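== Folding task for one protein ==

=== Format: two labelled lines per protein ===

==== Paired sequence and structure tokens ====
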Amino acid sequence: MQENTQNEKKVNGNLRTFIVGVLTVVAALVANLVIRALAFAIWPISPIFLPLKITSIGAFTIVLVGGSALIYMLVSRFSRQPTRIFTCIALIALLLSCVPNALLFLNPDTRMWPGITPLAITILIVLHVVDAIIVIMMLTRFAPSKGRPAKA
């Protein structure tokens, strides 16, 4: 009887984490598209810059934010301090994801990336930061994370 209750809690926790992961993807996607729309409405950004096209933003947001939800599930299963560990992983991933964008400031080759400008690169970095904030806030606050029990 007690084993069934523990299995039900585990299933409910996994389902809740999955639902929070999906909601995190949706929230990040909506935030990115709103930021993109505002950026294009306010500043003269070239619509041919591939990383700021709606399909690029959508695909990368779904895959990478969805992947972060899977990483959170793994961290919460195997770590004693899942919130702290996941936050560190997410911040390291944010820094690493900004490196290619920052390098574009040094060599904005318009032949390789048509439509690239420092403003467009900055918008990309803003999208990364917003995604990281959404991922960390939603997953660590709303997804269950009891963590692995400490060894006796």
